[in-house]
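Your task:
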Amino acid sequence: MKKNSLLLLSMLLVLSAVLAACNFGGEETTSNENGDGTTAKELNLVIASEPPSLHPGLATDSTSGVILQNVFEGLTTLKDGEVVNAVAEDVQVSDDLLTYTFTLKDTTWSNGDPVTAEDFEYAWKWALNPENASEYASILYPIKGAQAYNSGEGAEEDLGINVVDEKTLEVTLENPTPYFLELTAFKTYFPIHKATAEANPEWYTDAGEDYVTNGPFLLSEWKHSDSITLVKNDKYWDAENVALDKVSIGMVENETTAVTMFDAGEIDFLGAPFQTVALDAIDRYKGEGILNIEDYAAIYWYKFNTTGEFTKNANIRKALTLAINRQELIDNILKGEQSPALGMVPGAIKGFEEDRGYFKDNDIEEAKAALELGMQELGITDPSEIKIGLSMNTSEAHAVIAQFVQEGWTKNLGIEVTLDNSEWQVYLDKLNMLDFDVARMGWIADYNDAYSFLEQYDSAENGNNDTGWENAQYADLLSQSIVETDPEARIALLKQAEAVAMSEFPVAPVYNYSNLHVKKDYVKNMAPDGLGNVYLKYVDINK
């Protein structure tokens, strides 16, 4: 009797829910409408994890970056891969290419305050202050005095950052930097609302009135480890050209789950930086004619802990690098028109299109020779004594790739390889602490130049290095490239630096990315550029 009563009650509840959903309850719903009666344009997306940090000066990853670049805006931004003015109304560059004078538009923060030159000054100096441990501080090093201040050898007052007045920022560089206006579009160069940050040092840890931004969208809601909601910022200077009213972003770690959601119409776009297309869905999407493949200035590589028991040896690192069958990995597993990476700079970067001849793909003979040398140097007689941990962040795709590499290393080198995975933030912490032997990581160009890939290894102290490796000759060549004004001579110096690193193998390049994505037909103007940026400002929904 009790069970029957519960069944009847359940049926009544279900019927009530159905009636309510069909609007038979007598109350008209307007949840999907704007105040003027037009239908709200909502975009549904997913990212792979909780963003590690939504502070422009602390974020280092693409998951955090894609949120930041849609709620903040710098002096410049990118459109179709080209630099355009954003908060800057005008930019004047001195004849010696060392001084940039930015005149700001009349723009406002989300709390109504004007965006001023002082907000940029505050943000940049905050990131450079060594007490704040910004891992991306080095991207500000083109600014005069920046590296010295960040390394504790210079003073804040010597920085080439000068607030002329509320709407004028003058920036002096150490050396001519041809891509500087690309840098000012990068997240570390975004402004920060000084008054809020000084009043509440934890302003960036949650959505709310203290999360003050100046971009086309506002961080409306942040359910940690669950979802993020962005809404159109009506105070944004170019709000009339922002089509979307709302962007709902779930956090879905599993690629297959994300594919299922796309197929069911629960999300409107799938592809980095908004999760990735699962490997086992690529052929199907190709067959359906909806898979888009874009060029991508990005690389997938394995970083070595050069202080590890076995990976401290350069010949062991060389053996592991050479004993990867990249082409087979691409042909049989990845299937996304990637290319084998045989250097640290992808071929999508100007001047680095050709193979530089550092090593051959799947060169097992040379790998075994390097292994033998490494064993002699370490006093090891049997390859089975070498035990390597291969680490990755939790992901089906990374796991499949790691299993492929593990099988090759075990079969061809006779070493013992174990796999381990960690959630994204934990994984980043492990890399920073060198708590690994070999660890996967992707690197997307921050700006379209080889220096973006090479700079992170200029010192073991660089926040993005994560290998413990450094080399004085390598660092010197990079330093020479900074002051070299002849483009061809500069590229030659960068290639020489790359050659030094590839003789010691702090990383094992695996493949050059392509960017795969699928989207619903009604989603317009949404595709990543060559650096993987997706600016939601330009996206529209036409259902």
Notes: The domain at 54-211 is CATH 3.90.76.10 (Dipeptide-binding Protein; domain 1). The CA atoms of residues 474 and 497 lie 5 Å apart. The longest helix spans residues 2-21.
